[in-house]
From TrEMBL:
Belongs to the glutamine synthetase family. Residues 68-162 form the GS beta-grasp domain. One of its GO terms (molecular function) is glutamine synthetase activity. This is Glutamine synthetase type III. It comes from the Bacteria. One of its GO terms (biological process) is glutamine biosynthetic process. Residues 167-598 form the GS catalytic domain. It holds the Pfam family GSIII_N.
Length: 706
C-alpha cells in the first residue's frame, strides 16, 4: 500500500529544529555542556571560551539543517518580534573561498541598529546604541521554508547603559525576583532541597480565520486588523453552534500544518478547537517555563499568520475584529514549579501542604488586590479596548474567582481564624486536618472571571490576543514576589511560627476578601458592586497607563530590580504613543473608506432608486416604497457626510497635540466617539442598500464562508 506522504511521526519531528538539551548533550564536550547547564540553571555567567565552543557546535548543527544565516531574535516594545540576519560567511580567503563561522562573541552579543525601535525617550538621555544578549534559558532553533533556513538565537535587548528596551529583559528579571522569594517561602516550610522556583505558563491563543481574497477587499482589516464598519449578519453567534463544533476540512488542513510547524520548533501545541464565534478558533500548548512560553507564543502567532497566508486564508489576531461578535484573547495559565517538580499552587494532601498552599493562595490574592491596576494595565493594548467589557470578554475590573469550596474556606478564616469544615468532603482544619481534594469541576466553571483559580494554577484571561504575553507575566511574577517577600519578612522573625502563620493567614484573608468575586462578571450589577468595594475600573488603555508610573509601582519594580523609574516612564510614553498611532490609523482608514468607497457607492445607489421612483411614477403606479427607501438612504447619507467631516476635523487637530498622554487622551475622548458616530449611519446603510453595490465583503461573507 502506498504510504500517505502527508503522514507524520509526531515523536520523530518534535523539536527537530531546536538546539535543545538532547542535541547539546550529544554535541557538546562534557565539560562545556556542564558549564552551560550551570548557566541555565543557576544564572552563572558564561565565559567566552565556553561560548566559542557552543557557538561552533550550534553553527555546525544549523548548517546541517540547511541554515545560511543566524539572527539574534528579540522582542522590542512593538508587541512583535524583531530580527536582523547575518550570514555565517567570513572574509574570503586567499584562494577565494569562504569559511562559515560563528563565534562565541557573536552568539552572546549582537548590536542591531536600535534607533528605529521605540525607547520612550530612554535613548534621548543615554546612549543611542543598543545590544542584544543571548538568553540561554530559551533554546536556539532554525526556521526553514521555501525562502531559506535561519538560525534563531533568542535574546534580550538593552541599551548600552543597561536599560531594558524589550519585553524579555524585565521578564527574566521578574523570574529572578520570584525565584528568590519563593525559595525563602519554601525554606520557611521546611523545604531544604528545591534549588529553583520558576513560573510555569501555558498560554491559550484565540484567533479568527477568514478567506484571504475577501480579507484583501477590506482595507480596514488590512490596515488596522479589525473591521471599522460592518453590520451584523442575520445569523450571529446566538446559537453558539460553532463552539467545539466539528472542524471543517479547510480549517483542519490549516491546523495540521500549523501543528507540524510548531512541533518541529519544539512548541508543545496540544489542543485545538472552534471557539464561540463563527470562524474563531483556539490553540493551546502544554505549559512550560515562563520565558519560553512567552517566546513560544510569539512563534505560535507568527506560524498562524504564515500558514494561513500559504493556504489562501488570513489569520486575524486582533482582539475584536468584528463588532458584536465574540472577541479574542489569550488565557495566561500561571503557577509556580520547583526544579524538583512541586507545584506551589497545588493544595496538596497533607495538612502541612494545605497550610503552605493557603498562605501561597493568600499571597496571590494580596498581590492581585494591591496591584489590580497594574495587572489591568499589563493587558492594555488598543485592540483590547474594543474587547474588555464587551460580549463574552472579561470586564475591565480585576477580581479573583476561587470557586465555592475555597471561597467558603476563606469565609471561615475571616470569621473564626480557622477553617473547620468544608462544603464538600471531610472535615477541614487548617493545620490540623486536610483540605478537601479540590476537584477541577468545582473550581473551573466561571468563565466570566478575569482571574480564576483553576485547581492548581491561576488563569489570567484579560490578555489581548495580539499582544505579547510578557507584560502580564512580568507584573504577575513581581507582585507575587512582593507578597511572598512580606510574608517571609514577618514569619522569619516570628518567635512562635505557628501562631504567626495563623495570624498572617487570618489577616490576609480579611484584608483581601474584597478582591474575591465568584458571581457573573459580565453583569452590570458587578460593576456597581465592584465600585462599592473600591476596586479599580479602568475601561480604557488610556485610563490604565498611569498605573505604570504611580509611586507604589515604581517602588515595587525598583525594589525587585525589574524596572527602574526611567524604564517605567519610558514604557508609559511608548504606550501612549502606541495608542495614539493606532487610533490615528483607524480614523484615517475610516475617512478613506467612507469618502472613497462608501459614499460614492451609496450615491450610485440613490441614483438607481431615484430612477426607479421616476419610472414607477411614469408608469402611473404608487411609488411609496422606493420613495421611502430613497428618503431614508439620503438621510443616512447626510448623517454619514456630517460625521465624516467631523472626523476629518478632530483627526487633523489631534496631530497638533503634544505627543504622549495629552495626545492619547485627545484621541480617546475626542476622536473615538466621532469614529463611532460615523460608523452608526454607515452600518444602517449597509442594511438597506443593495448588496451588489456595497463596496466590500460583509460580516456574513467574512465569517460564515471560510
Ligand atoms: P481550559 O479548560 O481553560 O481550556 P486547560 O486545563 O486545557 O484549560 O489548560 C489550559 C492551559 O493551562 C494549557 O496550556 C495547560 O498546559 C496549562 N496548564 C495546565 N496546568 C498548568 C499549571 N500547573 N501551570 C501552568 N499552566 C498549566
Ligand atoms: Mg482557559
Amino acid at each position: 500500500m502506498e504510504e500517505n506522504k502527508r503522514d507524520i511521526n509526531v515523536a520523530e519531528i518534535f523539536g527537530e529544529n531546536v538546539f535543545n538539551d538532547t542535541v547539546m548533550q550529544e554535541r557538546l564536550p562534557k565539560k562545556i555542556y556542564k558549564e552551560l547547564r550551570r548557566t541555565i540553571e543557576e544564572g552563572k555567567e558564561l565565559d567566552i571560551n565556553t561560548a566559542d565552543v557552543i557557538a561552533h557546535e550550534m553553527k555546525e548543527w544549523a548548517i546541517e539543517k540547511g541554515a545560511t544565516h543566524y539572527t539574534h531574535w528579540f522582542q522590542p516594545l512593538t508587541g512583535v518580534t524583531a530580527e536582523k540576519h547575518d550570514s555565517f560567511i567570513s572574509a574570503p580567503m586567499a584562494n577565494g573561498k569562504v569559511l562559515m563561522s560563528f563565534s562565541g562573541k557573536e552568539l552572546i552579543k549582537g548590536e542591531p541598529d536600535a534607533s528605529s525601535f521605540p525607547s520612550g525617550g530612554l535613548r534621548a538621555t543615554f546612549e543611542a546604541r543598543g545590544y542584544t544578549a543571548w538568553d540561554p534559558t530559551s533554546p536556539a532553533f532554525v526556521k526553514k521554508d521555501e525562502n531559506g533556513c535561519i538560525l534563531y538565537v533568542p535574546t534580550a535587548f538593552c541599551s548600552y547603559t543597561g536599560e531594558a528596551l524589550d519585553q524579555k529583559t524585565p521578564l527574566l528579571r521578574s523570574m529572578e525576583a520570584i525565584n528568590k522569594q519563593a525559595l525563602r517561602f519554601l525554606r520557611l516550610f521546611g523545604n531544604t532541597t528545591s534549588k529553583r522556583v520558576k513560573p510555569s505558563v501555558g498560554i491559550e491563543q484565540e484567533y479568527f480565520l477568514v478567506d484571504r481574497e475577501k480579507y484583501l477587499k477590506r482595507k480596514d482589516l488590512v490596515f488596522t486588523g479589525r473591521t471599522l464598519f460592518g453590520a451584523m449578519p442575520p445569523k450571529g453567534q446566538e446559537l453558539d453552534d460553532h463552539y467545539f463544533g466539528s472542524i471543517r476540512a479547510r480549517i483542519a488542513a490549516f491546523m495540521k500544518e500549523v501543528n507540524e510547524e510548531l512541533w518541529r520548533l519544539g512548541v508543545t501545541a496540544k489542543t485545538q478547537h472552534n471557539e464561540v464565534a463563527p470562524a474563531q478558533h483556539e490553540l493551546a500548548p502544554i505549559f512550560v517555563e515562563c520565558n519560553v512560553a512567552v517566546d513560544h507564543n510569539q512563534l505560535i502567532m507568527e506560524t498562524l499568520k504564515k500558514v494561513a497566508e500559504k493556504q489562501g486564508l488570513h489569520c486575524l489576531l486582533h482582539e475584536k475584529p468584528f463588532a458584536g461578535v465574540n472577541g479574542s484573547g489569550k488565557h495566561d495559565n500561571w503557577s509556580l514549579t520547583t526544579d524538583d517538580g512541586k507545584n506551589l499552587l497545588d493544595p496538596g494532601k497533607t495538612p502541612h501542604e494545605n497550610i503552605q498552599f493557603l498562605l501561597m493562595l493568600l499571597c496571590v490574592l494580596r498581590a492581585v488586590d494591591r496591584h489590580a491596576d497594574l495587572l489591568r494595565e499589563s493587558a492594555a493594548d488598543p485592540g483590547n479596548d474594543q474587547r474588555l467589557g464587551s460580549s463574552e470578554a472579561p470586564p475591565a475590573i480585576i477580581s479573583v474567582f476561587l470557586g465555592e469550596q475555597l471561597e467558603d474556606v476563606l469565609e471561615q478564616l475571616v470569621v473564626t481564624g480557622n477553617a473547620t469544615h468544608s462544603i464538600k468532603g471531610g472535615k477541614l482544619q487548617t493545620g490540623v486536618k486536610a483540605l478537601p481534594g479540590l476537584n477541577k469541576d468545582a473550581t473551573d466553571r466561571n468563565r466570566t472571571s478575569p482571574f480564576a483559580f483553576t485547581g492548581n494554577k491561576f488563569e489570567f484571561r484579560m490578555l489581548g490576543s495580539r499582544d505579547s504575553a510578557a507584560a502580564p507575566n512580568i507584573v504577575l511574577n513581581t507582585i507575587v514576589a512582593e507578597a511572598l517577600c512580606e510574608a517571609c519578612d514577618t514569619l522569619e522573625q516570628a518567635e512562635d511560627f505557628e501562631q504567626a502563620l495563623h495570624d498572617l493567614i487570618k489577616s490576609y484573608a480579611t484584608e483581601h476578601q474584597k478582591i474575591v468575586f465568584n458571581g457573573n462578571g459580565y453583569s452590570d450589577k458587578w460593576v456597581e458592586e465592584a465600585k462599592r468595594r473600591g476596586l479599580p475600573n479602568l475601561p480604557s488603555m488610556v485610563d490604565a497607563i498611569p498605573a505604570l508610573v504611580e509611586e507604589k509601582s515604581v517602588e515595587l519594580f525598583e525594589k525587585f530590580h525589574v524596572f527602574t523609574r526611567a524604564e517605567l516612564h519610558s514604557r508609559a510614553e511608548i504606550k501612549y504613543e502606541a495608542y495614539a498611532k493606532a487610533i490615528n490609523i483607524e480614523a484615517r482608514t475610516m475617512i478613506d473608506i467612507a469618502s472613497k468607497h462608501i459614499i460614492p457607492a451609496v450615491i450610485r445607489g440613490t441614483k438607481v432608486l431615484a430612477d426607479t421612483v421616476n419610472a414607477v411614477v411614469q408608469a402611473g403606479v404608487d411609488a411609496e416604497v422606493p420613495r421611502e427607501l430613497l428618503v431614508e438612504t439620503s438621510g443616512l447619507l447626510k448623517e454619514t457626510k456630517e460625521a465624516l467631516g467631523r472626523l476629518e476635523q478632530v483627526t487633523s487637530e489631534a496631530a497638533f497635540k503634544a505627543e504622549g498622554q495629552a495626545q492619547a487622551e485627545y484621541f480617546y475622548k475626542e476622536v473615538v466617539p466621532v469614529m463611532e458616530a460615523l460608523r452608526t449611519p454607515v452600518d444602517r446603510l449597509e442594511m438597506i442598500v443593495d448588496k451588489e453595490i456595497w463596496p466590500m465583503p460583509s460580516y456574513g461573507d467574512l465569517i460564515f464562508e471560510v
